[in-house]
Amino acid sequence: MTLVTLVGEKMAKEGMEFIYLGPHPECKNCKLKTVCFNLKKGRRYKILNVREKRHDCNVHEDGVRVVEVDELPLIAAVRKGTRKNAKIKIKSPNCAHLDCKYYELCHNPAILEDKEYKVIKLLEPIECKEGKGLIKAELSDI
Fold first, then answer.
1. Average pLDDT over residues 4-26
2. d(CA 18, CA 65)
3. Of 5, 17, 38, 46, which residue is most buried, by most CB within 10 angstroms?
4. In the chain, where the domains are located
5. Residue 137 CB: number of other CB atoms within 10 A?
6. What angle do CA 68, 69, 74 make, to 5 degrees?
7. For 112-125, what is the HEC assignment?
8. CA dist., res. 25 & res. 19, Å (int)
9. Are strands 44-55 and 117-126 parallel, antiparallel or unpaired?
10. Could you tell me whether strands 117-126 and 87-88 are parallel, antiparallel, or unpaired per DSSP bridges?
11. 17-19 sheet: strands from edge to edge
12. Could you tell me the pTM of the whole model?
C-alpha cells in the first residue's frame, strides 16, 4: 500500500530506501508532524515517487519533500522447520557476532518479541556462526 509522507530534501530520490526511526523530539510542535509520523517505527520503506511540494523543516537543513513510499516486506531469521503461513513469535538470539552478515536479520529492530507474525515466504538458509538452524523469511503483521 502506497503512503504519503515527508523526507529530507537530500534523501528524496526515487528508489531510495530508508528505515523509519520514529518521531524526532524537535517535531512535537510542527504542524506537519502527522504526515511525518504516519510510518511504522523500525520498518523499511522505498520511495516510489517524489512530488514537487516542499516544506521548511527545523530538523532537515534543506527542508522536506512530499514523497510516496511503499512499506517493504519484513525480513527476519526464523528457525528451520518453520512453515509458510505459520503464526510465530520471534525472540532475538543471544549472539556476539556483530560482524556476521546476517546479524541484522536476527536482530531486526522492527521485530517486536511479544508480537505475532505470519510467515509469508521462506527464503534461503542462513549460515549461522553459532550453528543455529535458521532460514531467512518474509513476514507480515497479523
1. 93
2. 15
3. 5
4. 2-71, 74-141
5. 26
6. 170
7. CCCCCEEEEEEEEE
8. 17
9. unpaired
10. antiparallel
11. 2-8, 64-71, 44-55, 17-19
12. 0.78
